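Hello Y.,

Per our agreement to keep a running log of every chain we model this quarter, I'm adding this entry. I've kept the format consistent with earlier entries: sequence first, then predicted structure.
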Amino acid sequence: MASDQRGRPRSSSREALEEAATELFLEHGYQNTTVDDIAARAGVSRATFFNYFPTKSAVLWVGVDRALDELERALGTGASLEESLGMVAEAFGGVSLPLIASQAEAMNTGEDVLSEAGKRIIMLARLVAGSSISPDRVWSTTGAIVGACLEWAQAGVSRKGLPHYLGSHKLI
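Predicted structure for the entry above:
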């Protein structure tokens, strides 16, 4: 029996787009890569790209978005911020944040990537604010989390696991 479904299977289109974007950003730079280039490399249409990602720069933040979703789920179970961060750090110790942070220069990323970073920091602050942290510590805690993640991302080949960096900031 033939399938009525056309095109690339749904689960692989997202991954194909992520991989294509990463390759093209490293090969040609972020600024010199278009959504059409990414879609063509992934073997999907431009419309398919926008079914998965609202902007070109959003494709760089997929791993971070997954980690934020997981943090929200963990906090929703009643776990403390420290416990939740520990669980997320263990589960997402290898997300694409190191690539965007360590390869930003090679990718020639632009202002829209910084804008996307700001959106994620605000999402993180909202999650921190919804935890057991006192209101006067929300931004300092958010800053410490971001700082630990950046240290982890920029540590290079000697990088230890993310829990190490969160622990050094006394976050877990």
